[in-house]
Amino acid sequence: MTTKPEMTAAEIASAVAGRKMSALDAAEAALARIKQHDGILNSFTDVTVDRARAKARAIDADIAAGKEVGPLAGVPFAVKNLFDVAGLPTRAGSKINRDLAPSKRDAALIERMEASGAVLVGALNMGEYAYDFTGENVHDGPSRNPHDTTRMTGGSSGGSGSAVGGALVPIALGSDTNGSIRVPSSFCGIFGLKPTYGRLSRARSFPFVASLDHLGPFARSVTDLALAYDAMQGPDADDGACTTRGLEPTLPLLANPVSDLRIAIAGGHFQKNVFPEAVEAVSRVAKALGATKVVDVPEASRARAAAYVITTTEGASLHLDRLRKRPNDFDPAVRDRLIAGAMVPAALVDRAQKFRRWYRAQLAEIFKTIDVLIAPATPCTAPKLGQVNFNLDGVELPVRANIGIHTQPISFIGLPVVAVPVPLEPLPIGVQIICAPWREDIALRVAYALEQMGVASAPAPRGL
């Protein structure tokens, strides 16, 4: 038995554990797909061939010896290149970081995935220092959309979206500060989970905005998403923001009914600045779930503005020395925004943080009366590569800054979200399933129900 691109992680793990397929065969199949298609998609920056084969052989040896293997046994996965990978410099999409010494230890989430039996096959392209919504990188070239290679993947986890959407690997890991898991999920037609802030360890990953950064998985099915998420849960003293909550497995709960859940549609801000395809996707999801109630999220536009202030100022602080010493080695678009962030008055930052506390309290009140909030993930399907502007509600606006118009007000206060792909023609688009803090189980249940109904699904790559 050999793997096929449409095999899920769950199917691969079952076949490997049941000795119907070797872990080495699964790794070789993924490496072959990467070799065949990544010249087009440009999703990988590093392919860890020797490491993958060694890990796969070790899993096969354990199985032959009758040892227990994890729930992800033999499953190939890849990570955004801001995760530390032992033996590689952590480039974080930048030119400057390539001069760093190779990492001595893997990121915490890589260690946890491999402890569950997964096999790392490489590191993935991304927007420079994660300050990007397009998936375009001036140093490594753009990652390309697997459904139309003339279009964006979304960013900054563009390589993650492209690799999973293109079926090169069944699971990838990325980061989300303002939308960088949900935007590529939407454009590339896959499932993505941005967990509650602090839920998954960020230890040994390159930061962008410490008070907003989340790490999480991408997959082609909700079961795979839950498998990866459950494998990565748990406290970690190496990340000061990581929760001390114990494991809260979601996989056993996926098939629980959703009929008892109170589901509402986000109104106000989230029903403005949308193309017809985003309206249609939300409508399909709402209809399938029987959701008719509309809830206005107060001051969501202001939340987005405050997120911008915190992002640009914290990002500028992190990169100030690099900006002074090597300004010409930055992507000019990233450099200029970071320089602008360094000049934002402290009073504005203080106001943004005070508003953040108020806004969090408002959403907490909303989640006392509902369990799930539905909103668009992106205002449109994937724009063309290099597209500079688009028209939102009659106003010409820059694409790069406004793709995350509906994701930023959510990550601003760290709520858990599953982005579900709605397979419209000719391109898919995502819808956000938003829940109260620590209720990833509910978001995944709803995503699973939508998948079972056929409303949400990851389409086969159309551009390969």
UniProtKB/TrEMBL annotation:
- Keywords for this protein: Transferase
Keyword Transferase assigned to the entry: answer is: yes
Q: Where is this region: Disordered?
A: 137-159
Task: Quote the InterPro entries the UniProt record gives.
Answer: Amidase, Amidase_dom, AS_sf, Carboxybiuret_hydro_AtzE
Query: Can you name one GO molecular function term for this protein?
Result: transferase activity
- Keyword Transferase attributed: yes
The Amidase domain extends over 26-441
Q: Basic and acidic residues compositional bias: what residue ranges?
A: 137-150
Q: Which PANTHER family match?
A: GLUTAMYL-TRNA(GLN) AMIDOTRANSFERASE, TRANSAMIDASE
Q: What is this protein called?
A: Aspartyl-tRNA(Asn)/glutamyl-tRNA(Gln) amidotransferase subunit A
Species assigned in the record: Bradyrhizobium stylosanthis
Q: What is the lineage of its organism?
A: Bacteria, Pseudomonadati, Pseudomonadota, Alphaproteobacteria, Hyphomicrobiales
